[in-house]
Predict the 3D structure of the following.
Amino acid sequence: MKLAERMSRIGVESAFDVLVRARALEAQGRSVVHLEIGEPDFPTPAHIVEAAKQALDQGYTHYGPTQGLPELREAIAAHVSRTRGIQAGPQHVSVVPGGKPIIFFPMLALLEPGDEVIYPNPGFPIYESMINFLGATPVAMPLEEKRGFSFDLDLFRDRLTDRTKMVILNSPQNPTGGVIPAEDLRAIADMLRDRDVVVLSDEIYSRIHYGAEPPVSISSFPGMQEKTIILDGFSKTYAMTGWRMGYGVMPGWLVEAVNKLMVNSNSCTASFTQRAGIAAINGPQDCVETMVAEFRRRRDAICQGLNQVPGFRCAIPGGAFYAFANVNGTGMSSKELADFLLYEGGVSCLNGGCFGEYGEGYIRFSYANSLTNLEEAVRRIKAVSHRWAPALAV
Ligand SMILES: Cc1ncc(COP(=O)(O)O)c(C=O)c1O
């Protein structure tokens, strides 16, 4: 049986493939430090787990409303309104199984062949995959290391055409850890305000940042909330990747479209996990602060370590939990280097090219691992650096 033609255009997420390869090496008795996968290594906070257990005992084991439990949508709307400085109500919220469906469903609802989508490159690979899957045209926005991995605004203006239907922003960003400065967002908002475009603002790392001020959402600029889909969720903030719960905040007409796609696919998000989501949002937040403080220590340690490796240069990321090291100085392609580090060095990391053509020359290290393991990873990388820097090796 032949698969539908569109399946030839859908992509995958390399982190999962690399994890499989790393696990295969471990099965052969090799030791691997895992810096490939993008999920917090902390347990889900106990009060959230407890709320899920109680919900199971209370019978939250049946279908719920497609759009999400009203009490959870109220909590999300209040949280997003406060943190983004906008006015969102429960009618603007779609609760879905993870952050990813807020990429999948709105794109499915909006994009047609011929539509252009401007998206960050390097970026989360699902954006480009979905644009291609739907037959729309991907228009890559190169991220620039020298601008803290924000992009050139003149280049952005040049990329806008009458066919631009969607602009994807992601801040704090995967894979670079970059945070788009407020003044760049203001300039982007000014360019988009009078255009018939939708902004998909992926803010899944909104709570994981290291600056004095939280990252700004483009939705907070005048006239932008009406054309913005905010993607956020529980996976990263509360170490809940396996619970599969995320949400979108968007105009009502788009919520209706997402509802239709949800009813055709999932019916609803699991009811007892949504009860846990209410406990997460309305409960104590010190668990998030503790996790972010630990990520900050790890960020400082891994960046310092990577900057000592010959041929590596690693900017200090402002958010998320990824260090995106420039490895051009090694003279190896990033794919060659990532494979070498896995098979010869015992460090599993991702070739920047997995995140698009402009990721070539970089390696992503996820620092969602203990300080001890991060130090061990740096030690291992230095130990094999004679491969590309014979004279300098330690
Ligand atoms: C930028 C970005 N958006 C969305 C997601 C999806 O999150 P979830 O696991 O909640 O589907 C991820 C996960 O890695 C991500 O990095």
Observations:
- The pocket of pyridoxal-5'-phosphate is lined by residues 38, 98-100, 124, 170, 174, 202, 204, 233, 235, 241, 246 (CB under 6 Å).
- The mean pLDDT is 96.
- The longest strand covers residues 164-170.
- The CA atoms of residues 153 and 393 lie 40 Å apart.
